[in-house]
């Protein structure tokens, strides 16, 4: 009888210890919280010590986080805002410095969203169907088409819509190529966070209208000097560029079957056109090799 008691007691002790050991193993590792949507008016500049960007995730994982070299990209301009979101892994690589910045022609994707969401798809503007303005505005970055739509919809209506959609840093203040307005300090703005929000919605709702239509248009992008420039030709990219004398931007979806991701690169005061465009292309190529 005493021997049976000792056996039972020993078994219970083993079970309890095993349970607590498992509980300790299952304690989630602390992960870096995703950055708040609230945007600082004073963006953080990356120091020389910050040569790589780490992934962050809302998912708990003890696996080592992949690293992506950002030194060349950061050295290509005085200010760089970058972000990548991997859809299959729900992980992000980001400069974490989102702030309102000059949009250049990237503003046109937000105008496109307004047009598809708020306008009558059968509407005719200046005797042409709506699509005849939207497609060249995106695929050829046609400034005249953008100005027609801005004037037709009205800046106030566009800006109100952007706010309701959570694009808090995106704003139209002037027509395209309006140098007089620029000399008066008026600009068109967006941010890393707003562009990433647009791309995530575009990808995640691509099976439904209007995202399906917008994605098809962006797949036909003719300007491929940045995000797609270093990728194999068989990798599908849906992107929209933006260029001014002091800004080189590109945002898009890299739609590889195994590793689709959204990517945003916005820059100000670049060192050279060739340098920043090449750096964006190399950064995108490197991003495709994460999670292979």
Helix content: 25-40%
In N-to-C order, the SSE pattern is: HEEHEEEHEEHHHHEHHEEEH
Low-confidence stretches: 1-52
Mean pLDDT: 84
Q: How many DSSP H or I helices?
A: 10
- The CATH architecture classification is 3-Layer(aba) Sandwich
The largest sheet is: 7 strands, antiparallel
CATH superfamily: DD-peptidase/beta-lactamase superfamily
Q: Supply the helix-strand structural class.
A: alpha+beta
Distance between the termini: 61 Å
CATH class: Alpha Beta
- Work out the number of β strands: 11
Q: How many domains would you count in the coordinates?
A: 1
Strand content: 15-25%
Radius of gyration: 24 Å
Please state how the strands of the largest beta sheet are arranged side by side.
Answer: 2-1-4-3-11-10-9
What is the CATH third-level topology name?
A: Beta-lactamase
What overall form do the CA principal axes indicate? globular
InterPro entries: Beta-lactam/transpept-like (IPR012338), Beta-lactam_cat (IPR045155), Beta-lactam_class-A (IPR000871)
GO molecular function: hydrolase activity
Signal peptide: 1-21
Pfam families: Beta-lactamase2 (PF13354)
Outline of this structure?
This is Serine hydrolase. With 292 residues, the protein is of the alpha+beta class. The chain contains 10 helices and 11 strands.
